[in-house]
Design a protein that fits this description.
single chain; 217 residues; mainly alpha; Methane Monooxygenase Hydroxylase, Chain G, domain 1; 7 helices; elongated
């Protein structure tokens, strides 16, 4: 029974790593499509979102089946419960890549109101956070999980800076309000991705320590 449970947990573990690695790649593609005005890439991201929905459902199904058939307790049960939360946050990050790519399609053919510098830097920080969450999950590294939670402030600072900059552009050039609003939404989606990465780190910490981490403590 123990061997079978371990094998099933390893299978779920591999699935989480595959999903997280694919999401890292998708974040890169999302910002590249936006910066390069790459409509074809943006369309592929939009159309490819279903694969993340399938991954989420498959991992959830495996977890539920293990809980129902193996009746795990203590650490094993806690880890499975945390995985159910983690996979939901991973899927939400993928959803936001799709959301941004839809806005990239809306912006197709338009000259951007300003060169994209802060947004790509913000996206890079978000991608690094997601990568760290996967490493944190693999290694069960509580200290790395706490660092991820702290890094969320960096993304928040980027968001505040981008929002203020776009507000100024709208005041100076009211004709560009629609485009500025699109970029505000894009920045908000990246900020939400960072929030989901923070959630994942907190669930990894819970899976290891059995208690919820509060960065304010």
């Amino acid at each position: 029974m123990r061997v079978m449970l371990d094998n099933e947990l390893k299978s779920i573990h591999v699935d989480i790593i595959k999903m997280g690695t694919l999401i890292e790649k998708t974040i890169d593609e999302t910002i590249n499509a936006l910066v390069d005005h790459d409509v074809e890439l943006a369309q592929r991201i939009v159309e490819g979102d279903d694969r993340f929905d399938r991954m989420e459902l498959e991992i959830e199904s495996k977890c539920i089946n293990v809980i129902a058939r193996r009746q795990p307790v203590a650490t094993d049960l806690r880890k499975l419960m945390s995985i159910l939360k983690i996979v939901t946050d991973l899927e939400r990050i993928a959803d936001h890549c799709q959301d941004i790519s839809k806005l990239t399609l809306d912006l197709a053919g338009k000259t951007y109101v300003k060169p994209l510098i802060d947004l790509p830097n913000m996206a890079k920080q978000v991608k690094n956070m997601v990568k760290m969450t996967i490493d944190c999950y693999i290694d069960e590294d509580v200290e790395k999980g706490k660092l991820i939670c702290a890094d969320d402030d960096i993304v928040d600072d980027y968001y505040d800076m981008i929002f203020a900059d776009l507000e100024n552009i709208m005041k100076e050039n009211p004709k560009e309000v629609r485009q500025c609003m699109d970029f505000m939404m894009i920045a908000k989606y990246f900020e939400r991705m960072a929030d989901h990465a923070t959630n994942i780190a907190e669930w990894v910490i819970y899976g290891v320590e059995g208690k919820h981490f509060d960065i304010n403590e």
